[in-house]
Specification:
Elements: E1 3-8, H1 16-31, E2 35-40, H2 46-55, H3 63-87, E3 92-95, H4 97-100, E4 102-104, E5 113-116, H5 119-126, E6 130-134, E7 137-139, E8 145-147, H6 153-164, E9 168-173, E10 194-196, H7 197-205, H8 213-222, E11 226-230, E12 239-242, E13 256-260, E14 263-272, H9 277-287, E15 292-297, E16 304-312, H10 316-331, E17 335-339, E18 342-348, H11 358-368, E19 375-379, E20 382-388, H12 392-402
Parallel strand pairs: 1-2, 1-9, 2-6, 3-6, 9-11, 10-12
Antiparallel strand pairs: 4-5, 7-8, 11-12, 13-18, 14-16, 14-17, 15-16, 18-20, 19-20
Helix pairs in contact: 1-3, 2-3, 6-8, 7-8, 9-10, 11-12
The structure holds aspartic acid (ASP) and magnesium ion.
Length: 409
């Protein structure tokens, strides 16, 4: 008998009616003799509601207490779904993360899974139960409840799939798969049948909000077959995240156009061109726990250079502050400037490895639309540019077309 993990997100269990629908779907899988472990998120909006509630008491809620509280969202979902299954005559049993014993480290609000005890789940499966596990949560060595970071139920699903060696981890969500880009920006965007795990990582980190990035990393590490599907639409195979460019890969060179409007850029001007400067600029930024994305340093001339990088938009003011107060006087830079009205647009595809001229095609297409490129960065399977925010959608549309990603209808 094959075992699958099904994870249902917040919108999929967002109301009593939807929970009943999910239960009916699970019952149909069960009727085919499939063993199923279900992971669920909190009902949509619930985690946000709980966090807001906590903030009425502490501006920065104590992380341990916050986890005790936000984990209740999922606890409610698992119990309700189990009741709905039982009502359909399906044997079901719910578990919180601690009850399973999903052991994590003690990094409250962003804990990492260390180990999963699978004995109870296995015994229940063998006794014919559908096992319903609360996503997003675990327990540390000392017994304190932990959570895995926003969107963490995806990671619970993948981790269970790895621990139980499930056939597949199916992530049911409100979209029916991974698209070549956001269909709200490009209506011709196509659903991908497959995408490689590396491409998915690039797409996820670049802002397609379908899967928690950590779950994709996890799936890559433990070779879990991961599939994204719609919970509202019975038909469709969704998108399978594969490990290689296999036989059924669609033969596009580029798989998708990703974008991110959450970034800001900063330039430190007139930096002395000598060893240790990059460290002196970025060290204090890292010490403040600010994530840096793209980094560019120019060729020096007359002993001076400019140093630019991008960060999350929310960190813009704080970063400028650190640079002006801690870095600029220290290294004798000429100035600090930047802007938070930028966006990053990326073309992603493993086909890039074996094809030349992708960058020039991209830059030409942007040039023809008069879009100025402010920064460029590349990896083996991705080329990203920073452009003015107001040209982002245009850039995405143009690139989607130039790389032949539009729907063939
Ligand atoms: N309920 C949690 C959140 O909203 C975890 C999840 O849905 O995956 O982030
Ligand atoms: Mg999610």
């Amino acid at each position: 008998m094959t075992l699958i993990i099904q994870k249902y997100g917040g919108t999929s269990v967002g109301s009593t009616e939807r929970i009943k629908n999910v239960a009916r779907r699970i019952a149909r899988f069960r009727a085919r003799g499939q063993q199923i472990v279900v992971v669920v998120s909190a009902m949509s909006g619930e985690t946000n509601r709980l966090i807001a509630l906590a903030k009425e008491f502490q501006a920065h809620p104590d992380p341990r207490e916050l986890d005790v509280m936000v984990s209740t969202g999922e606890q409610v979902s698992v119990a309700l779904l189990s009741m709905a299954l039982m009502d359909l005559g399906v044997k079901a049993k719910s578990y919180t993360g601690a009850q399973v014993r999903i052991l994590t480290n003690n990094a409250y609000t962003k804990a990492r899974i260390l180990k999963i005890d699978e004995d109870k789940i296995r015994a229940d499966l063998d006794a014919g139960y559908v096992v319903v596990v609360a996503g997003f949560q675990g327990v540390d060595e000392s017994g304190s409840i932990t959570t895995l970071g926003r969107g963490g139920s995806d990671t619970t699903g993948v981790a269970l799939a790895a621990a139980l060696k499930a056939e597949e981890c199916q992530i049911y969500t409100d979209v029916d798969g991974i698209y070549t880009t956001d269909p709200r920006i490009v209506p011709e965007a196509r659903k991908l049948k497959t995408i490689t795990f590396e491409e998915m990582l690039e797409m996820a980190s670049l802002g397609s909000k379908v899967l928690q990035i950590r779950s994709v990393e996890f799936a890559g590490k433990y070779k879990v077959r991961l599939r994204v599907l719609s919970s509202f639409n019975e038909e469709g195979e969704g998108t399978l995240i594969t490990f290689e460019e296999g036989e059924n890969m669609e033969h596009a060179i580029i798989s998708g156009i990703a974008f991110n409007r959450d970034e800001a850029k900063i330039t430190v001007l007139g930096v002395p061109d000598r060893p240790g400067i990059a460290y002196q600029i970025l060290g204090p930024v890292a010490d403040a726990n600010i994530d840096v994305d793209m980094i560019i340093q120019n060729v020096g001339h007359d002993g001076m250079t400019d140093f630019s990088f991008t960060i999350h938009r929310n960190e813009f003011a704080r970063t400028v502050d650190i640079l002006k107060n801690q870095v600029q006087p220290h290294i004798g830079a000429r100035g600090v400037m930047g802007g938070d009205r930028i966006a990053k647009v990326s073309v992603v595809g493993v086909g890039m490895r074996s094809h030349v001229g992708i960058a020039s095609r991209m830059f030409r297409a942007l040039a023809e639309e008069g879009i100025n490129i402010q920064m460029i960065s590349t990896s083996e399977i991705k080329i990203s540019v920073v452009v003015d925010e107001k040209y982002m959608e245009l850039a995405v549309r143009v690139l989607h077309k130039v790389f032949d990603l539009d729907q063939v209808s």
